[in-house]
Amino acid sequence: MQSLQGMNTIEGENLDRWVKQCRPLGTKGRCAEYIPALGESNLLDLGICIITPEGVEIKSGEWDVPFTLQSISKVISFIAACLDRGISFVLERVDVEPTGDAFNSIVRLEMNKPGRPFNPMINAGAITITSLLNGESPEQKLHSVYELLEKMIGRRPTFNERVFQSEWKTANRNRALAYYLKESGFLESEVEDALEVYLKQCSIEVNAKDIARMGLILSQNGFDPIQKKQVFPKEVAKLIKGLMMTCGMYNASGKFAAFVGVPAKSGVSGGIMASVPARYEQETLFQMGCGIGIYGPAIDEFGNSIAGVELLKNLAGEWDFSIF
Ligand code: DON
């Protein structure tokens, strides 16, 4: 196995090459224009950061460009809700089954009585989860999300008011989902309050390094090897990684499992947070696992970064990441 010191430069050069190769794919995707403020992103941006448990950071491209968490926030609010209310309370209200449908689909809420959302990675599930967070007001509920994020990335992330306002005004589909959930008894807060928490958590701003750190903590089952502390219990980490594997890339989760093979979560702003677990084979690079953060704002029809997914496929092939 290469030494970590050597890896930093050799693998950094490989990473630059793959970023260069995948970047043009951005022209084949689109920005998430249904959130008007996201329509202004640069389609050709592509950045990546990999962090190992030893604290080695390998970065390339636009890894430091800020972007909003969007659906990656669903991982954080799910963990926060489990910490606030306990796993069984949460799972009574949101299931853990993939849908094979689009992330904002409403169809299964009516088709499967009593309408429990299929999983917390789709919008219906995530809106329900935000209503379960501790506290009465949206501010109090958001506190749980910020507190956990701060523990994971070591600083309080900024909030993009413009992206929030832009989505708040156009969130008709999410409003429809929230009204439906309220009517079927799954939403524990008022519709507008749940939407405010959900859309505000989506508008929290990070960069690829931040989400790589989050992916690293997940890969170490809730233990942060950099701050040397357990941030959340192993049981919660295993549960959310199972959800990321089966539902994290929406209705492309099967393809992602087959061709990349690690738990990951995407967002429509172009972020992908991936978590590579420790492996037992000898001679394996990143044997102790790593976190990967990617930013590439051009998304495909499933809502996943088009160049980001290709980049991960390359890395998984070259560095043998897949857990299978
Ligand atoms: O609710 C929405 O539609 C967005 N705020 C988040 C969706 C999202 O990121 C789906 N991801 N690929």
Automatic annotation (TrEMBL):
Substrate binds at S71, N123, E167, N174, Y198, Y250, V268. Keywords: Acetylation, Hydrolase. Its EC number is 3.5.1.2. Gene3D superfamilies: 1.10.1500.10, DD-peptidase/beta-lactamase superfamily (3.40.710.10). Signal peptide: none annotated. InterPro entries: Beta-lactam/transpept-like, Glutaminase. GO terms for molecular function: glutaminase activity. Pfam families: Glutaminase (PF04960). GO terms for biological process: glutamate biosynthetic process; L-glutamine catabolic process. The keyword Translocase does not apply. Transmembrane segments: none annotated. It catalyses: L-glutamine + H2O = L-glutamate + NH4(+). The keyword Acetylation applies. NCBIfam families: Gln_ase (TIGR03814), PRK12357.1 (NF009021). Homotetramer. Belongs to the glutaminase family. This is Glutaminase. It comes from Halalkalibacter krulwichiae. The lineage of its organism: Bacteria, Bacillati, Bacillota, Bacilli, Bacillales. The gene is glsA1.
